[in-house]
Write a structure and sequence with these properties.
Elements lengths: L1 H74 L1
Length: 76
């Protein structure tokens, strides 16, 4: 029984050693993804702010053009 436990322990250690680089690589990949998603989230916030400003400017232009259109219509 003890021999079997030691064998299993040895097998487990071997698996850990064999996969150590994979574990480190996966950890690095997850860290990079986290940073990339944070950057993307910041860029999306900036985009949303810019889109709101564009929408506001568009509404102002539409109102100005509408007023001018009404004035031209009255002259016709």
């Amino acid at each position: 029984m003890v021999k079997h436990i030691r064998s299993l322990d040895s097998d487990m250690q071997t698996l850990v050693y064999e996969n150590y680089n994979k574990f480190i690589s996966a950890t690095d990949t997850i860290r990079k993804m986290k940073n990339d998603f944070k950057k993307m989230e910041d860029e999306m916030d900036c985009l949303a702010t810019n889109m709101a400003a564009i929408t506001e400017f568009s509404a102002r232009i539409s109102n100005t053009l509408q007023d001018q259109h009404q004035q031209i219509t009255k002259l016709s």
